[in-house]
UniProtKB/TrEMBL annotation:
MF annotations from Gene Ontology: acetate-CoA ligase activity; AMP binding; ATP binding; propionate-CoA ligase activity
PANTHER family per the UniProt record, alphabetical: ACETYL-COENZYME A SYNTHETASE (PTHR24095:SF146)
Reactions it catalyzes: propanoate + ATP + CoA = propanoyl-CoA + AMP + diphosphate; acetate + ATP + CoA = acetyl-CoA + AMP + diphosphate
Homology family: Belongs to the ATP-dependent AMP-binding enzyme family.
Native species: Pygocentrus nattereri (Red-bellied piranha)
Name this polypeptide is given: Acetyl-coenzyme A synthetase
Amino acid sequence: MEGAKTNICYNVLDHNVLTRNLGEKVAYHWEGNSPDLRLTITYSQLLKQVCRCANALKKLGVKKGDRVAIYLPMIPELVYSMLACARIGAVHSIVFAGFSSESLAERIMDAQCSILLTADGVYRGEKLINLKQIADEFLLVHSEMPLGQGVSTTQLPFLKFKTLWNAECDVWWDEAVDNASEECDPEWMDAEDPLFVLYTSGSTGKPKGVLHTIAGYLLYTSLTFKYVFDHHQDDVYWCTADIGWITGHSYITYGPLANGATSVLFEGIPVYPHVGRFWEIIEKYRVSKFYTAPTAIRLLMKYGIEPLQKYDLSSLRVLGTVGEPINPEAWMWYHDAVGQGRCPVVDTFWQTETGGHVLTPLPAATPLKPGSATLPFFGVLPIILNEHGEELEGEAEGYLVFKKPWPGIMRGVYGNQECFENTYFKKFPGFYVTGDGCRRDKDGYYWITGRIDDMLNVSGHLLSTAEVEAALTEHSAVAEAAVVSRPHIVKGECLYCFVTLKDFREFNHSLMDELKRKGKREKIGPIATPDFIQNAPGLPKTRSGKIMRRVLRQIARNEKDLGDLSTLADPKVVEVLLSQRCEAAA
Ligand code: 6R9
């Protein structure tokens, strides 16, 4: 669409209010961390708030093309700010509000942001996070920071914390926004102008600033949202991701708004104030389309079906998952217990880099197979290659690549064209390389087998993490499993398995024997016999919930250097695992 002019904010707001007559429709039901905090925002209210924020940004000196760092929790102001940037042609760079000051600093400097929007603080469950203080810590250390035009802080309507205040550069949100006009002409942008930079989740390596542009991204998120969730105007849709990740960008903000959808915007966590919080919210808003991650499903599965039974989930129509391969056990629980056997489960495979779903079922149209992301979305051409870059036909396993671009594909790594080319296009020239392994079955269905870097090579057989882990989680005592390789004199590599047990299950010798058998004959074959099995009360995960197998690999190998841990959610988990390493084979 190069050469065409557009504004994405105009498309997702003004167009809905002015031409589709959706001004009075609810855009978001905001549900706070604490269940008594809530807010309803209609499309016309959203448009006004965005315009005020856009005017405030302009007044603070933000211009077309400038990068704006946003470090906010899941509050409406996060949506207002990102759309305000889009309205005036600024490029948003959202940093998940759980990152440390160092990670925030790295991202602000890499994208050369001129302004930072943050909040005084946020409660996540019972834990208070002083965001402004974290942001200030980094400003003190990095006086060379490019932040020229000052830090604007949003003061949450419900919280007032003591925060350091530097009158030279800090501005309160309400002072900046409250008196701003509710009208702001959109800046007409080129279709290929940048929309945002977002750093990848970093489960394998150093985070990269993925750049997306306007028109293709709008088209792709809008279309995938419509078809993959079978969107209808009376739906209430809820995606539990944080907007700090691509899932939130594409499927909380842009995709749903482009379709004039009503969404739930949730600030809290799944287990606060009780483990039935998700189900309670589904009942409260009569949610019909629900989208979450395997890590959340496995967490909630640990508590059994009792918390579910207290709520009316009959409004649910479609269930979605994203983020990791979903093991068939968790898939079945999602389908049977949450969806009560009525709702198709759409297992959507995609990446920050792909902008939107690339492999996915369409509900009710695609026959499902638990654990498979099924088939490509319209216009997407998946190919499986072997080590030598040869295309494999029919039933096959190898590298997942795409042969043709689609509208939502990333356009670059911010400020680093070389990294963009090397990471995604160099290994197999002519293809976009996902970095994931994949198997195609006899029906042409695609099964993601995990990141290529995490593959296991035992006695010359290439095993995927997903298949061994799926075998272990079949055991009724196991909530979650992660498998990595460890060098072995005879086999080359052997399997080191970390297992998290369900509540009240005991880790003992007979369980170890049963797990060894699971991996072995029953499922995959003798080569998949676990050599080491370690009890893992928790697994190292990124802040978006992906298991960081590279850290586990270092633990299994007793390596002291654990690599870049900045994307790790809870460093304590690693200490526990290190202290309980298995020295002897099981
Ligand atoms: C959207 C998102 C991308 C990586 C991707 C893959 C894994 C995502 C998946 C899946 C199997 C699925 N992944 N969805 N694996 N089945 N349905 O998660 O983006 O944070 O960039 O992660 O996540 O390994 O390459 P991102």
